[in-house]
User: Which sequence fits this backbone?
């Protein structure tokens, strides 16, 4: 788009703009996000950062709407607990959480139930998690050609931008008028 207008912009400049602007847009999107369902599917996927695999925790509801995401360096109890606390703070306590056979996720949910007394039904089934497994593909399709990230900080910011665009494409931005908005118009509306 810039080249069409006669403006020469290096890819490093676009990267620097993204690192500065995406955290602001992510904060605005979180405030304007549509409510999600009470039945969550949670799973983690891998993303290469600095030549090492890191873990992207993701949750979607029964309808496929993205609930939350969090990039962590390790796949352990602390990472799972941080993810669940962040998702529950943003969307409230779910009725049901479906996970695969991950022991860290199970321990984190049981720890949260014991600490808060919340009545969360826990299901462990890899087949019921197909919704979130298929939703990983949209993120992987964009991240794979990038050949990984160099730093964890940049990776978490850029993954947030990718997730925001994915949620916009799924129609999760609230507060729009009755007319049909394109994804670009919805993204642009975050700046106002």
Assistant:
């Amino acid at each position: 788009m810039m080249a069409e207008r006669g403006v020469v912009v290096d890819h490093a400049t676009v990267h620097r703009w993204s690192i500065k602007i995406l955290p602001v847009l992510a904060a605005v999107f979180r405030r304007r996000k549509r409510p999600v369902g009470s039945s969550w599917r949670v799973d983690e996927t891998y993303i290469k950062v600095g030549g090492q695999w890191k873990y992207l925790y993701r949750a979607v509801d029964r309808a496929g709407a993205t609930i939350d995401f969090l990039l962590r360096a390790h796949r352990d109890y602390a990472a799972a607990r941080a993810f669940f606390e962040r998702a529950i703070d943003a969307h409230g306590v779910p009725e049901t959480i479906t996970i695969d056979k991950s022991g860290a996720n199970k321990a984190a949910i049981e720890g949260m139930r014991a600490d808060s007394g919340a009545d969360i039904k826990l299901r462990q089934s890899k087949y019921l998690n197909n919704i979130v497994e298929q939703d990983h593909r949209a993120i992987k399709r964009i991240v794979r050609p990038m050949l990984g990230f160099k730093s964890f900080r940049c990776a978490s910011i850029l993954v947030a931008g990718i997730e925001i665009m994915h949620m916009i494409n799924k129609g999760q931005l609230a507060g729009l008028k009755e007319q049909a908005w394109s994804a670009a118009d919805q993204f642009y509306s975050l700046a106002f």
